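Batch manifest line 349
LIGAND: NAP
JOB: complex structure
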Amino acid sequence: MTVTATQKVRLLLIGVGNVGRRFLDLLVRKRDTLCDRLGLELTLTGVADTSGVAIRPSGLDAQQVVQLKVEGQGVAAYPRWGQSGVSAFEMVRTTEADLLLEASPANLEDGQPGLSCIEAALSRGMHVVTANKAPLVLAFPRLLDLSRVHGVRLCFDATVAGGLPAVNLGRRDLAAADIHRLEGILNLTTNYILTRMAQDGLSYDEALAQAQAAGHAEADPRLDVEGWDAASKLVILAHSVLDYPATLAEVAVEGITHVSAETLQQAAAEGKRVKPVATAERDGEHYALSVRPTWLEADHPLAQLGPKQMGIVYHTDISGVISAAIVEETPLPTASALLRDVVDIVSSQ
Ligand SMILES: NC(=O)c1ccc[n+]([C@@H]2O[C@H](COP(=O)([O-])OP(=O)(O)OC[C@H]3O[C@@H](n4cnc5c(N)ncnc54)[C@H](OP(=O)(O)O)[C@@H]3O)[C@@H](O)[C@H]2O)c1
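JOB STATUS: finished
ARTIFACT:
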């Protein structure tokens, strides 16, 4: 399949929650920019949520899909083209499209429904852009092989630290560098909780509730607070940037649930900050991977990040120490990371 910058690109979208809905908003908001600047017309030909699907080969109205969700309805209620009882997998298996966007919940048990849908899309010659990390954590080598065999791209910048281009920076800009250490605050919810507890005296429960209300927390917040979300992102960085085939099982994971207000005060009294840090440290041919609440010196780049920030620090042999950070007030930057991967795929055809 060939997509050129002046062609209409047909998209399928799975998941119309915090991220998927904002992506549809972007399709509407950036329509003229994409067309005028890049000669790109993105058309939503299919969308799936738990209610079913809506499929229209000539294009669905993205704004209408968002409106349905705002009204508390599913996409199956889309006039004329909505169908209840049809799965996302069925949509991917049978609908003609150029690119699949995957934004369903991260399911670290078996990766579903995202994993089967991504496999089906790649096998049918569709590019894939995903915000869902679980399929990559469970099957990165297989999915990459599948994309190569079928000559299509698999992009996933949105899976690590929301809108922060942590993956793309590492893969593209550090491609020739040797990274001996990587440190990151890769999960917003845990940084939000620890920072608001330390700075504003919020209780753990209050801070978690606020992170959930802003749409940052996972559907199951235990993935965040017990460290598995950050560990998953570390595994993706290991595969894609460090060229190290890590598994989730080898990450030493410690959550933040036991971090008390007293501990945070003690750290502050010593001029330090407690932050949820994911680390990959080179050890010969391997990397030691960990996620844990970490006492950082106050001048460490990650210590200075506020409650709505995430960041990454790459320690390299030839590119110095590179730090990048993002302020993510809402999941909009994550949706924009999906869009930039779409643009990258289409423009590089
Ligand atoms: N939120 C963030 O800031 C953020 C940042 C980076 C990455 N991510 C990742 O992006 C993905 C989406 O996150 P989110 O916050 O948008 O999640 P969300 O708000 O929970 O939305 C999930 C969407 O997936 C749909 N869905 C669930 N099961 C499905 C199934 N079996 N078939 C089809 N659709 C299904 C839901 O349908 P209903 O609407 O019918 O319930 C909903 O529309 C997750 O993998 C998450 O890890 C999120």
